[in-house]
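Model it.
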Amino acid sequence: MEENKKHLEDLTHIRSMMERSSRFLSLSGLSGVFAGIYAIIGAAIVYFDINVGYAEYIRNTAGGGEDQNKKLVFLVSVALLVLVASLVTGYLFTSRKAKKQGLKVWDKSARHMMLNLFVPLIAGGALCVIMMAHGLLGMVAPLTLIFYGLGLYSSSKYSFIELKYLGISEILLGLISAYFYGKGLLFWTIGFGVMHIFYGALMYFKYEKPAKG
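Modeled.
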């Protein structure tokens, strides 16, 4: 009986080691929560700066002009600030979690995850630039949601399963946003703000909080 119990413990340990070596498990749920908060703050800044309905702003921007170009630069700047803040915060929380677990932040599984995440993101970013160059600003929010969702779905096999479901949610939101043209800011806020907070909190309480108890 004792021998069987020892074998089961050994198998569990081996399985845990294999999972750690093939999956990036240091990703912190808190990084998702803060990324969502940053996204909501960024969306609020954009909304109040535009000071008109987003659909109306899309129509006005399509005509070009110096003022519209300034607004476009402002939108891109806010989006970049949200991205940088999210990446920095994510790295800090992930590093702290990895240190507690005795794991490396940048290992083979992390590299695979980042590669699968950023290939769709770079392709989607390039397509968004092309859309903006043609005055199709209303397609930027749907495209960012869709390509971000594809990146999450692809990279989830190297990390937590929740990323897969978050990716599917982002893709669906992007498609809905494309249908409701001109409502992109609303769906962008839901996708990058609310959904990040929801899944980040879910991952935190599922994988991190119990370990502290």
